[in-house]
Design goal:
The complex is a heterodimer of chains A (310) and B (374).
Chain A: H1 7-21, H2 25-33, H3 38-49, H4 68-80, H5 87-97, H6 102-108, E1 113-116, E2 124-125, E3 132-137, E4 140-151, E5 158-170, H7 173-205, E6 207-208, E7 211-212, H8 217-243, H9 246-271, H10 273-276, H11 282-294, H12 299-309
Parallel strand pairs in A: 1-3
Antiparallel strand pairs in A: 2-5, 3-4, 4-5, 6-7
Helix pairs in contact in A: 1-4, 2-3, 4-7, 4-8, 5-7, 7-8, 7-9, 7-11, 8-9, 9-11, 9-12
Chain B: H1 7-23, H2 35-50, H3 69-81, H4 90-103, H5 106-117, E1 123-126, E2 142-146, E3 149-160, E4 167-173, E5 184-190, E6 196-201, E7 210-221, E8 225-226, H6 232-247, H7 251-267, H8 275-300, H9 309-331, H10 340-350, H11 358-369
Parallel strand pairs in B: 1-4
Antiparallel strand pairs in B: 2-3, 3-7, 4-5, 5-8, 6-7
Helix pairs in contact in B: 1-3, 3-7, 4-5, 4-6, 6-9, 7-8, 7-9, 8-9, 9-10, 9-11
Classes of the chains: A alpha+beta (310), B alpha+beta (374).
Bound molecules: flavin-adenine dinucleotide.
Flavin-adenine dinucleotide binds at residues 125-128, 133-134, 158-160, 210, 350, 353-354, 356-357, 359-360, 363 of chain B.
Chain lengths: 310, 374
């Protein structure tokens, strides 16, 4: 047993960080929320160049056929930087649903997909920008047409009602669902970590009563609880990527969601009013975390799966 | 990254499982916080030692099997799953022994460890004092130089197992002029020596699980000082990180309890409104197990246990309380007639206090892990 990421995985994560730190991701997210996708698609192509979109695609379609753990490493970094777009649908879920030439477009970063997966994913994410739209109905796959747009609590998640279209085939949706939940867990976890890091930074800079607020024990203790929850959720996410059993995936989704939610709520409290402004990047993550808590299986659903399997 | 056991580890786990299935007493031993229970536990420790299972990760010369840390964690999982007796020797094995391995002399290791491994000598930790709890550096008990050794004077308190234990280890102030963390000396002392008074103190369950210790010019020979005189603080900190970081609460205990909780929940007909807490307890236990595997992998790759030990302690102390509270709530009016879950519950309540309180751990995490200003 060696329960540590490999050096190669650490390097991959670092290269994602380098790229994303040097780009204006938050500005791309704000534009994305307005329906302006250029910046976001440019980012998508850049991430494709370093392999992110090819991870889950088999080699016969020019993909990397990488492990589920590699996928988690990528979603972890996407979540930290809160990169907008249907990443879970396109990169984690679609390749598990289809065996089709179309995946070559996914690998190349040219194809964005939106996957509706009722009841856990009833509305389709970013269906307006997606090149491929698939709805999963039991074991059947349908193309769908985007209908009314709904506004998500997270402005950057553009959701659409789904109108079923032509049936395109059969699939075993189980693995695709686990991967959707797992990718969401990884994304959530690191969105939470960003919220913690930003809060720690703020607590060091912001002074009140002549001292940094981070020197007050009440503030310290809140943040210590956040890092504890996050640190203990991470190994669940990694283990779920190794086993992909329903129990481990569900445990990961519950714990990552819980930790990220605590990070969001605590983060807002530690920031005070500045965190409540629409200009501050904190809000981009706070609303995202809230939205993702219910996506790809609610906490109640996942807890029930844990109990069933234990 | 993988979670696969190699043949050696898997073989060892199977051996341990088989041995425990054969040897764990069918009726639970009496509490080791009673005089009879203490002796029953000593006998059990000796039996474990005969099977060379009392200290599996120690070198063979001291009674161990030179097992890896991972194998130790697996051993612990099996141990708790088999509902084997609590370890009366744990203070010595998990706190004094690591200190001797890193700071003791060869003579000390050979003299002390084999007897500890067999339960022949049961150790108590004598750190806390009436006026030195969280602020342990405020301790006042003194060690005065004398011919061939030191004379101890003062009072220690809340010393687990000390009511029946043979010896104790702890810090004494050897240089009253030195600054707080300096001038402390780490000594081992015989609890039957002249000048020692042990006053057992009953705990919440009524049993004398800890004791007060009074020292009146108690002689300790030089050979029972660990590390350099005056350097006791530094020596003690290795022990503290070890205690919080890994050894004190191995994940096996929580996993066994969480599995039992899920069974209890099913037997109780899955009462409405409880699934969330039961599931979270199980998820917490699994998280702690995996986190430990991560720590073990890091240590085996040459890493060190640092202040992140406090993260560990904060997590399990809350998990343990939540898990037991949930079990008692599930059992409803049956809960109070115990003893199985009530004993565990009472014990869980001490978790946020001993080994450094959760408030102190939070401050440590904030300052030393997150880098917030003091
Ligand atoms: C079951 C049990 C077994 C024990 N076994 C042993 C043993 O074997 N050997 C031994 O030496 N000791 C032992 N102890 C003692 C234990 O280590 C101490 O209880 C612990 O260090 C806390 O000290 P205290 O009880 O004096 O509480 P205090 O230090 O008086 O603290 C009281 C409260 O104030 C809070 N507090 C104190 N200072 C701060 C601060 N700076 N910031 C925020 N909050 C603060 C604490 O968190 C706590 O909530 C044991 C205790 C228990 C309960």
């Amino acid at each position: 047993m060696k329960f540590l990421l490999s050096e190669e995985q650490e390097r991959f994560a670092a290269s994602l960080d380098d790229l994303l730190t040097s780009r204006e991701v938050d500005s791309a997210t704000r534009a994305w929320a307005r329906g302006e996708h250029d910046e976001g698609r440019k980012l998508w192509r850049e991430l494709a160049e370093i392999g992110v979109t090819a991870l889950g695609v088999p080699e016969r379609y020019d993909g990397l056929g990488a492990s589920d753990l590699d996928l988690v490493v990528a979603f972890d970094r996407l979540g930290y930087h809160a990169v907008p777009g249907p990443w879970t649908d396109t990169v984690a879920v679609l390749p598990a649903l289809l065996d089709d030439e179309l995946l070559a477009g996914v690998a190349a970063g040219e194809t964005l997909a939106s996957v509706a997966f009722p009841p856990h994913v009833p509305y389709a994410l970013d269906a307006d920008v997606a090149d491929t739209r698939v709805a999963v109905d039991g074991t059947g796959l349908h193309v769908f047409h985007p209908a009314t747009r709904l506004s998500s609590v997270d402005g950057a998640r553009r959701l659409f009602r789904v109108e079923p279209g032509e049936r395109i085939g059969e699939a075993d949706p189980a693995r695709a669902f686990e991967l959707g939940a797992l990718a969401t867990a990884a994304y959530l976890l690191s969105a939470g970590r960003w919220l913690l890091d930003a809060s720690v930074e703020h607590a060091k800079q912001r002074h009140q009563y002549g001292k940094p607020i981070g020197s007050f024990q009440a503030v310290k203790h809140l943040l210590a609880d956040v890092v504890t929850e996050l640190e203990l959720a991470r190994p669940l996410v990694h283990a779920a990527a190794l086993t992909l059993t329903a129990r481990d995936v569900s445990a990961a989704k519950v714990a990552a969601g819980r930790a990220a939610h605590l990070a969001a709520r605590t983060g807002l409290q530690v920031h005070g009013a500045i965190g409540y402004t629409g200009e501050h990047p904190l809000g981009l993550r706070l609303t995202k975390v809230r939205a993702l808590l219910g996506a790809w299986g609610t906490p109640a659903f996942h807890r029930a799966r844990v109990l069933e399997a234990t | 990254m993988d979670l696969d056991l190699d043949d050696r580890a898997a073989g060892f786990r199977d051996e341990v499982r088989a041995w425990l299935a054969e040897n764990v007493p069918k009726t639970p031993l009496a509490s080791f916080d009673t005089a009879t229970g203490f002796e029953e536990h000593r006998a059990w420790e000796a039996k474990l030692a005969d099977a060379r299972l009392s200290v599996v990760s120690w070198p063979e010369e001291f009674g161990g099997q030179d097992r890896t840390l991972l194998e130790w964690v697996l051993f612990e999982e099996e141990y708790y799953a088999a509902r084997a007796p609590g370890r009366v020797s744990q203070n010595g094995i998990f706190m004094l022994a690591p200190t001797l391995f890193s700071h003791g002399t060869d003579e000390q290791r050979h003299r002390i460890l084999p007897a500890m491994a067999r339960g022949q000598e049961i150790w108590a930790q004598a750190w806390s004092e009436p006026e030195a709890g969280s602020d342990i550096a405020a301790l006042r008990s003194t060690a005065r130089r004398t011919e061939g050794g030191w004379l101890l004077t003062g009072q220690k308190t809340w010393s687990s197992r000390a009511s029946f234990a043979d010896r104790a280890f702890g810090l004494f102030r050897s240089d009253p002029e030195a600054r707080r963390h300096h001038g402390l000396t780490y000594v081992m002392v015989d609890l039957r020596a002249e000048g020692v008074t042990v006053r057992p103190i009953p705990q919440l369950d009524g049993e004398p699980g800890f004791a007060e210790l009074f020292f009146d010019d108690v002689f300790v020979p030089d050979r029972d000082v660990i590390g350099e005189p005056g350097e006791g603080w530094r020596v003690a900190m290795t022990t503290a990180n070890n205690e919080r970081g890994l050894s004190l609460r191995s994940p096996g205990r929580f996993l066994a309890a969480a599995d039992a909780l899920v069974r209890e929940w099913r037997d109780a007909g899955r009462p409405a409104g409880t699934a969330e807490r039961v599931a979270d307890a199980w998820i917490g236990a699994r998280a702690y197990q995996l986190y430990t595997f991560g720590t073990v992998s890091r240590l085996e790759a040459g890493g060190k246990l640092g202040p992140e030990s406090s993260v560990n302690k904060l997590f399990w102390s809350r998990l343990d309380v939540d898990l037991h509270e949930t079990a008692l709530d599930l059992l409803g009016p049956e809960a109070e007639v115990g003893p199985e879950w009530t004993d565990g519950w009472l014990f869980s309540l001490a978790g946020p206090i001993y080994g450094g309180t959760d408030q102190i751990q939070r401050s440590t995490v904030a300052e030393r892990v997150l880098g917030l200003p003091r």
